[in-house]
Structures are given as structure tokens and as C-alpha cells.
Amino acid sequence: MKGLIIVGSASPNSHTRALAQFLKGQIEAHHHEVEIFDLAERPLHMLDFSGQNPVPEAYQRNAEQLKSLAMEADFLILGTPNYHGSYSGSLKNALDYLNMDYFKMKPVGLVNNSGGIVSAEPLSHLRLIVRSLLGIAVPTQIATHDSDYDKLEDGTLYLSNEEFQLRAKLFIDQILSFAKNSPYEHLK
Ligand SMILES: Cc1cc2nc3c(=O)[nH]c(=O)nc-3n(C[C@H](O)[C@H](O)[C@H](O)COP(=O)(O)O)c2cc1C
Questions:
Q1: Domain annotation covers residue 186
Q2: Ligand 1 contacts CB of residue 106 (under 6 A)
Q3: Ligand 1: which atom is nearest the Cα of residue 80?
Q4: Does the C-beta of 16 come closer than 6 Å to ligand 1?
Q5: Are 139 and 42 in contact (CB under 8 A)?
Q6: What does the DSSP 8-state code read for residue 100?
Q7: Per the domain annotation, does 139 fall within a domain?
């Protein structure tokens, strides 16, 4: 099976990216493929149907990559920082490039990180979007805080909180189990 993790932080080396990296490791430990699409590294132009604003080629390529990875994915994970009590604008913009064809009856995991008071509210907001896209947001979700991470010598962040490491494993088990059993295959 193939998965796609979309990271919606505006910062490279974000906490959300570090969480995605941990989740990737768990998925690969189950011998499944997964790619991280970090919007801080592969930004998208603001969705624009006017045709009047030239979109740089690199941005066009990123959009094409995102669409092809999302179409191929058997499951998706949406990762976002907490921005103003919700998910990030760049993640919403990325989702606006996709439609039901990319999500229909696929399991979707939701994760977020807050720098202030820990909140899962961005995930509740994302749940509504996933429902609109006919995806299946799995019940387990992960809402971390900056303090759940440490830095390696080169400054790269990693998820260091052991409780969240365990939760992340259960979260991945759940997503893979939904994807494998695919009870809704006939509804696609
Ligand atoms: C535009 C913006 C809005 C933010 N709003 C909130 C907020 O409402 N609550 C909060 O706890 N942190 C807020 N933060 C702080 C981020 O959650 C914090 O920087 C966090 O580390 C981001 O995670 P990341 O490293 O994955 O990007 C905000 C940051 C930005 C840039």
C-alpha cells in the first residue's frame, strides 16, 4: 500500500514535519510506502482559476506531484500546525487542489502541533473537510505541543515524547487496518 502525508507548516524543519517523519518510520516498519509532501519545501501557488496570474513552473510541478501522489495513495495523513486555533492556510490551499476523487472512502489520519496551549481544534476543523471530500477520518488523532520534540545535533526536530511515540504507533496501526480491510471498497 501507498500513503501520503501532507505537512502544512510554513516553516521548514517544523514540528509537524518531525511528527510526519516519525509516522513515516512507523508506516515503513509495516513495509508500506509513504511520501511526505511538505508544503514548506514544495509550495503551491494560491489556487487561481482566473488564468491572469502567471504561475511559476516549479509551483505548477508541485501541484501536479501533489495530485498524482494523492490519487495513488491508499491512505492519507494531514498534518498541520495550529494557526489561529485552526489548520494552516497553506494546507487548506493544498486541499483545494484536490477533490473527492482523491479522497473517496480512503482512510485519513489527522495530526497537529501547537506552540501555545495544546489544542485539537484544528483537527476537528479538518474532520469536516475530510467528510466533505468523502474520506474517512479515523478516530485516533494526534495533537502535540512544541515541548514534545527535541533537536538532533544538526538542529533537526524529532518527536521525543514517549507517550506520543506510542500513540503514533497505534494511530498508524489504525490507519493501516482501515486501509487493508477497506470495508467501503464497493462504495468508491
Ligand atoms: C500565523 C500563526 C498563528 C498561530 N496561532 C496559534 C494559535 O492559535 N495557538 C497556538 O497554540 N499557537 C499558534 N501559533 C504557534 C504555532 O502553533 C507554533 O509556532 C508551532 O510550533 C507551529 O508548529 P510547526 O513547527 O509544526 O509549524 C501560531 C503561529 C503562526 C505562525
A1: no
A2: no
A3: 26
A4: yes
A5: no
A6: H
A7: yes
The Å distance, Cα 92 to ligand 1 centre, comes to 15
CB 12 within 8 A of CB 41: yes
Task: Provide the whole-model pTM.
Answer: 0.97
pLDDT tens, per residue, the chain with 188 residues: 999 999 999 999 999 999 999 999 999 999 999 999 999 999 999 999 999 999 999 999 999 999 999 999 999 999 999 999 999 999 999 999 999 999 999 999 999 999 999 999 999 999 999 999 999 999 999 999 999 999 999 999 999 999 999 999 999 999 999 999 876 777 77
d(CA 125, CA 69): 23
What's the distance, Cα to Cα, between the start and end of the chain in Å? 17
Domain span including residue 98: 2-48+56-181
Q: Is residue 28 part of a domain?
A: yes
| Domain containing residue 156: CATH number | 3.40.50.360
Residue 87 inside a domain? The answer is yes
